Amino acid sequence: MCLGELGRVLVVTAGSADVQVGDRVRTVSLLTLDDPVAPGDWVQIHSGFALARLTDDEAREAEQIRSLTDAEEQP
C-alpha cells in the first residue's frame, strides 16, 4: 500500500510547488491544501498533489516510521 511521500518545499508558484523528495525534485499541485506553504515547509504528497503541510516534528516522526516499515519489509 502506498502512503505517499514526504517532501520539502523548494519553490512556490501559483498553485504548485517544486518539492525535494529524496534525491528528486517534483512539481506538485497545491490545490488540495487550505493552508499556505512556503519554502522549507514539509508536505505529504500523493499522486502529484500535496495533501497536508507537516511540522518539522511530524515530518521527522513520519520518516522514522517509514524507515522502520521499510526495514521490516526487507527479506
Describe the structure.
- This protein has a five-stranded antiparallel β-sheet with strand order 3-2-1-4-5.
- The chain is built from one helix and five strands.
- Helices cover 24% and strands 43% of the residues.
- The chain is of the alpha+beta class and 75 residues long.
SSE order and pairing:
Elements (H helix, E strand, L loop, with lengths): L4 E9 L2 E6 L2 E6 L12 E5 L2 E6 L1 H18 L2
Antiparallel strand pairs: 1-2, 1-4, 2-3, 4-5
Summary tags:
about 80 residues, alpha+beta, five-stranded antiparallel β-sheet, 5 strands, about 45% strand
Main sheet specs: 5 strands, antiparallel
Following the backbone from N to C, one meets helices and strands in this order, namely EEEEEH
What best-fitting shape do the alpha-carbon axes yield? Answer: elongated
Whole-number mean pLDDT = 89
Across the major sheet, the strand order is 3-2-1-4-5
Strand content: 35-45%
The end-to-end distance, rounded to whole angstroms, is 17 Å
Q: In DSSP terms, counting alpha (H) and pi (I) runs of 4 or more, how many helices?
A: 1
- Give the radius of gyration: 13 Å
The total strand number stands at 5
Helix content: 10-25%
Briefly note the structural class of the backbone. Answer: alpha+beta
- Uncertain segments are none
